Amino acid sequence: MCGIVGYLGDKEAYGIITKGLERLEYRGYDSAGLALFNNNDIELCKTQGKVADLKSKAESAGVIHGNVGIGHTRWATHGEPNDQNAHPHYSNSGNLVIIHNGIIENYASIKEALEGRGYQFASDTDTEVLVNLIEDIQIKEGVKLGKAVQIALNQVVGAYAIAVFDKRKPDEIVVAKLGSPLAIGVGEGEYFIASDASPFIEYTNNAIYLEDEQLAIIRRGRDVKVRQIKGDKQVMPYVQELQLNLEQIEKAGYDHFMLKEIHEQPKAIKDTYRGRLRINSGIIKMAGVDNNLEKFLNAKRIIVVACGTSWHAGLVSEYIIEQLVRVPVEVEYASEFRYRNPIINQDDVVIAISQSGETADTLAAIKLAKENGAFVFGVCNVVGSSIARESHAGAYTHAGPEIGVASTKAFTTQITVLTLMALKLAKAKGRLSESEFHNHLVELETIPDKVADSLQIDAHVKYISSIFKDATNFLYLGRGYNFPVALEGALKLKEISYIHAEGYPAAEMKHGPIALIDEHMPVVVIATKKGHYEKVVSNIQEIKSRKGKIIAIVTEGDKDVKKLADHVIEVPETYEGLSPLLTTIPLQLLSYHIAVMRGCNVDQPRNLAKSVTVE
Q: What's the rounded Cα separation, in Å, for the pair 98 and 165?
C-alpha cells in the first residue's frame, strides 16, 4: 500500500519525485524518502512523517540534485514508522538502493541466513533484507543487477513492486512486480516509474503496465526490456495511451479531495452509464455481459467478493439481483473467502468488486475462483489494473481518479454498474416486462440530477455536524436496500473522524444495540418512503422513547418521521432499488463535516491507505 516513484532522464529528478510522492500519499503517509544519484554517488534522505516533512529535510540537507532518483511514501507493515524504517534502503556496501511496495513473507529466514554471512541490518523492514539478498547474489554469482534481482525474487514469498538502483550502473533502474501495481511512463528520452500514472501524467501519456511476475530493465536512451521472472522469457512490452489528465487529480478549488469527489458523483454516475443506458433503443449495452450472457443466464448462483466499501456495494447488489433476476447471491469478504475453503462450482459466477483493481485479497479470491472453474466478472475503476486483467470479463465504473482514502464516488458508481447488470439480466430472463424495464431505465437516467439535488443540503448537514461533532459513538440503522447504506455511513464516520460507529439492520436494534441508546447516542436512521417505512417509523419511536438523538434521512415531503426526529435530511424520491444512490450522499457529507470540525486529516486518515495491496 506504499507509493513508489522513480525517474531516469535529463531533468532534475527531485521535483518530479517529490511531486509524484505527494500525488501518491493516498497510498501511505507515515514516512517518506528519496535517493538521488549525484556526483557519482547516491544521496539519500528519509524521514518519519509526510512528504512535506521529507521536502523540508531534503532541501535543508541539499539533497536536491541528480538526473536519476527513486522515492517512496510508506504505509508501515514491518517495523514501526520512523526514520530508520523509511525507504529507500541501502545494501550493506552502499552500492544498491531499493524502494518496495508489498510484503516479503519469508524475510525472517532470509535475514537469518544473511546475518550468518556477516550482513548487518539498520532497520526492522523486510525490504532491507531483500536489497541485501540481491547484493549477496551479485557477489556470489557474479551477475548483473537485472539477473541478481530475478534470482532473488525467485527465492522470496510475498508481494512486491520494487525499483532497484546500482550506483555503479547510473543509467539503469531495475523494476519488478508481483501483486502490487507498477507503471512505467515512457517519455522522450526519459522514463518514469510509479505505483500509478498520476506522478507522470504531465510529462507523458504513454505507459507500460507490468504484469505479475515480470521484471523490466530501464536504461537511458534504450527501449525497456521486459522478461518473466520465472523462466527468463523475454516479453514485448505494450505501451498504452493513458486516459487521464492533470485536472482530474487536482482539487479544483475544493478544500479536500473527498469533498471534490462527493460533488463529482452526478457526473461520475452519468459517465458510468453513458453509452450503456440507451433509452431510445430500449436496451442496456454492456460488452462484458453481452459477450458472456449464457454464463450469467445459466448461473445457479452469483458470488460477490469484495472488501470495505466495495463489499457494501456488493450487499446492495445482492438485494437488486435477487429482486430482479431471481438468482441467489452470496456476498463474501474476499479476505475470508480465500481462506475458508469455499464451495465453488463451475456454474457459479463470481463478481469481484474493487475501486483500485489492485486489492490483494480480492485478487486472491479471483484466482481461487478461476482455479475451481467459476466465471469471474470484474467491476473496477482503474483501466488496466490487475483485477481487470485477471477477470474473464468485466465492466469499468468510469468514476475517474479517486484520491481521497475514504471512497465516495466508487460506492455510487459500483452500484450503478451492478444495477445496469441486474436490469439487463432481468430483461434477458423475462423477469421484467417491456414497460417495467423502460421505467427503470428512465428513472436511472434521472439519478445524477437527483444526486445533484441531494448535494444542495450541504449547509444543513454541516449545521447538524456541528451539533454532534463531539459524540463518542454513533448508531446507523437501515432496512432492505438501505441496510448496506447504514453500514457504509458508519464506515465513513469511523474512517475519517475516528468516532466509533456501527451500522445495523433497523429491526436488529432490539436484539442488543438498543441497550446503548440514551440521550448521548446519536442514531442515524434511513427512513425513505419506499420499503418498510412503517417498520422503520416504529424503530424510530423505540429510540425516541429511550431519549436517543435521531438524525433521519427521509423522502422529500415526509411528515411522519419529521414529528419524531430531532433532525431531518431530505432526499428526492426514487425507486427503492435506486435509493442507496441518494441516501448515501448526506451520510458522506455528515462524516466529512464532522471530521473537518474535529481537525482530522480527511484525505489521509490515520493508519489507512487507499489501495490495500497487501494482506
A: 7
118-141 burial, b at 16+ Cβ within 10 Å, e below that, comes to ebeeebebbbbbbbbbbbbbbeee
Domain ranges of the chain: 3-247, 251-432, 455-602
- Active site includes 2? yes
Average pLDDT, the chain: 92
Task: Tell me the per-residue pLDDT of 349-389, one tens digit each, with 9 for 90 and over.
Answer: 999 999 988 888 999 999 999 999 999 999 999 887 889 88
Which residue has 481487470 as its cell numbers? Answer: 388
pLDDT tens digits for range 283-297: 999 999 999 999 999
Out of 2, 45, 307, 600, pick the active-site residue: 2
Helix ranges (DSSP H) in 197-264: 257-263
Domain at 251-432: CATH code: 3.40.50.10490
559 tagged catalytic? no
Q: pLDDT tens digits for 248-303?
A: 667 778 899 999 999 999 999 999 999 999 998 999 999 999 999 999 999 999 99
194, containing H or E segment? strand 191-194
Of residues 607, 609, 180, the one with CA closest to residue 357: 180
Strand order in the sheet with 301-306: 329-333, 301-306, 348-354, 375-380, 393-396
Report domain 455-602's class: alpha beta
Residue 330, strand partner residues: 303
Q: The domain at 3-247 falls in which architecture?
A: 4-Layer Sandwich (3.60)
Q: Decide whether 251-432 matches 455-602 in CATH topology.
A: yes
Which pLDDT tens digit goes with each residue over 516-571? 788 888 999 999 987 778 788 888 888 887 888 999 999 999 988 888 999 999 99
Q: What pTM, to 2 d.p., does this model score?
A: 0.78
Which residues, in sequence order, are CB contacts of 217 under 8 Å at separation 6+? 146, 172, 174, 224, 225
Which of the residues 46, 295, 492, 610 is marked catalytic? 610
